[in-house]
Amino acid sequence: MKTASILRALALLLICLLPALPVRAEDALRSAYRSGVSTTLSASVGAFNSVLGHATTGYGQVRLTDKGFFLATPASSRAPRMWWAFEAREYHGDTRGRKFDMLLGFEKPLGVRTRLGFATGYGVAELDTGREIRSRTLSFAPYLQTKLNDNLGFKAWAALARPDYRLGSTPRAAWRTAAGLDANGAYKLRKLDLSGTAGLSLSRQASSGVGDVSGWQIGKLTATLRTRATLRLERNFRPYFELGYSYGAWVDDGSSGDYETPSLKTGLSWTHKKRSFTLNLNGTQVFDPVQPLVLSTNYSIRF
To answer: Helices 2-17 and 20-55 sit at what angle, rounded to 10 degrees?
Structure first.
């Protein structure tokens, strides 16, 4: 009787466990897929913001950064030009892998203070988010830059993209829309430069399902404020102090949430002709003890 009771208990346990296995597999697949979608979405929006920042600052330049490089045909501020950019991102941790974005653009002046441009991009990602996921993304984005006066300016862009994802041999498609708006200001005092930016970016992606996982939508909103004070010293040295604040909200498959991130940075820059060197210390640990102190350097050459 005792043995029969044990067997019945084991059988009941197996009956309870068997239906749970597909659910856990479905949850793991959904988590891996959603993590890949979120990573590629954030990277693509970041690439557009970064590259269009280069495109709307200066003319006839080559820029080398820690993420990639930017190349533009020589042109005055009143002439059309073309540009090409490449950016690469590498991920370590829960999400591992690489993401590459290549963008090609053309812009022309509209009047004295405004420029209109069109950019097309192609992105490739090879990620491991618990499952191997690959993506290919083709995107198109018009953008506009204008200056109200010598101190205030605006930059706006909007993008439409068609990402294709593949988990193993299973392809899945999605549609993505994104937009960004930035206002910037700069003022020069006797020995001090004051600058600031306010930015807002929105993104939304509708992804089809995979296997037993149904399709869903993901949306993100990010608002940022930044102000910087830079001392003008001799020999092209420029120490600076910067305060920033970022607020984000997200919606993912019916769930939602928000976050806020204050930031504190200091450092210095040195320029000589077309070369520059920067040293930055991220002291956000002052606001969030969990954050580490981060020291970074960057050396760039413009041609």
So the answer is: 30
3-state secondary structure of 254: coil
Under a CB-based contact definition with an 8 Å cutoff, are residues 123 and 100 in contact? yes
Longest dimension (CA), the chain: 95
pLDDT in tens, the chain (303 residues): 455 565 455 444 443 443 433 445 566 667 777 778 778 878 887 787 778 777 777 666 777 777 778 888 887 878 898 999 888 888 887 788 888 999 999 999 888 888 899 999 998 988 888 778 888 999 999 999 898 888 899 989 998 988 888 876 777 788 888 898 999 999 988 889 999 999 998 888 887 766 566 667 888 889 999 999 999 877 788 899 999 999 988 887 667 888 888 999 999 888 887 788 888 888 887 787 777 888 888 777 766
The answer to whether the CB of 157 falls within 8 A of the CB of 122 is no
Asked if 141 and 48 touch (Cβ cutoff 8 Å), the reply is yes
Q: Is the pTM of this model over 0.85?
A: no
* Rounded Cα gap, residues 138 and 141, in angstroms: 10
